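Objective 1b: paired records.
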Amino acid sequence: MCMREQFPVFGGPPLSTGIVIALVVIASTSACRPYGISHRTQELLFSLDQPCQTQCREQINAIKELARRADPDSVEPLLEILQRPKQPKVLRIHIIRTLGHLKDKRTIKPLDRLLRQETDDDIRLAALMALSRFGPACPVTIFAHALYQPNIGIAGQAARILERYSAEVVVGEIIKLLRTGQV
């Protein structure tokens, strides 16, 4: 196929369509890593910005692939998407699970905030389970505080998580919570 169309570039000599296409491809591939984010990770994050179709299948699959890729550059965008109002519950739960899978310490505070402030029990339980994946990196206080959740299922799960810690540590954290009036 012969491409005879010509495109002037910044006042210089005209370029053929083939050269323009090649320049666009080169520019787009080099611009795909503006913050160290791979091209595929950018594509996956972009698909999360699209409106959900039937049961958010495309977005859920993108989130699962982000978890498999374990790309730490996806943490901040996932946290931002999680904070958006009116996100479908199923999407939020999958994002929370992925954040737990990534075990990035930047997610501990936002997940703790969800556990304490979210009104939906399924979201709070997902946040608790994601936090439990951090092991010793996650403060025991979070789980001790979760014992006082109004939902017995969440409180019971928090108790099971706290069984991993020594009794002295758990009791000490509960006493701190009681003394400071946090529960």
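Objective 1b, second protein:
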Amino acid sequence: MRILIIALARSGGYQLNEWLALELGYKMIHEPIWNNKSIEGNDIVVKYNISEIENRIDIDFSNWDKIIGLTRTDVRECSISHTKAVQRKEWRGGYEVSDEWIIENEIDIKHFEGWIYNAIDYMNGINEIHLRVTYERIYNTKEDIQRIKDYIGITNTKYEHLLDNTNRLRNRSKTKRKAI
């Protein structure tokens, strides 16, 4: 099976990609255009950042068995996370954000909020996305985890703890991270 995840930056896409690849025993391919990775073959889970594919005409959605769209409902939190990642030039490491930092970076945060709303609008126009999920319904309420399992056909899980809120990147030092 070929599974494609199209995700906003800072929406938990890396973790979702890793989880599905581990559960299924598939090859995980993260941001293949930016990382110059092939997406050929079967038994793969590929995660595109929406910025990788936005406005490209060479992306063929017809050769995927399953396509999942991942966004965030809390655009402000996504924007804060994005702003911090851009400043640090670090997209995977844990970090902390203070109220003071938010105040000092309000202009950039507002800028990225606009970009995120545009990206969500773009994603909403991709009709090939058959399952739409959110960061909040995966990592906070857990309700989208079952929807993903049903959509993909996963009945037994060994790595669902990867989708636990303790694995989030923000304020990681305040929580104990669950290992694989």
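Residues 167 and 178 are 6 Å apart (CA to CA). Strands lie at 2-7, 27-30, 44-49, 66-71, 131-134.
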